[in-house]
Fold this sequence. Notes:
CATH topology of the largest domain: Jelly Rolls
CATH superfamily of the largest domain: Jelly Rolls
CATH class of the largest domain: Mainly Beta
Amino acid sequence: MEVKSIFDGIDENDIKKMLVCFEARARIFKKDRTIVSNIINIKMIGIIISGTANMERYDYNGNRSIIEKLEKNSVFGEVFSRLGSDISVIATSDCEVLFIEYEHLIKRCKKGCIYHSILTNNVLQLLSKKIIDLNKRLEVLSKRTIREKLLSYFELLANDNPKRKFTLPFTYTDLADYLSIDRSAMMREIKNLKDDGFIETNGRKITLKSY
């Protein structure tokens, strides 16, 4: 069974005990606030309890790249991102984040908590999924044209829906930064894809046609 949360397989009461044992800390962040300014420097795992955030990086020219969209149950931290330095986590809505130090995950629990091994296994599985997702993103970015990048990304989203309908997880501005393309050029290409019958759009809701 696919692990969707770091707490999968752990009883709610045991979660409360575990958070005390692991000295976990919860913090509230307002929209647009920086959750982590440089992910490579933190020695903790962050878990999105509610709300959304982006992992992003700016280059020397001030151009933003979005690495990943973080939603409820998403996990982030230095161990989950070996993409280089200067990667920040920014709240895209009001959100609550739980922080657990790596030390509590990698060391044997003094109390012999049965849920400690379950949580560690969940972390490893989530890390494996992140690697797979990163490879998929790299495949999309490897496409040469804006049209190819858009269709490749839309195909990934449509695969989870038999009717090939989905809602973009990003605003169009964020989507352009996620795909590393110019927004104006991207919007023109989306219009062209619609005119050519490849897609139907209703705001951020998209239906991908067979092509």
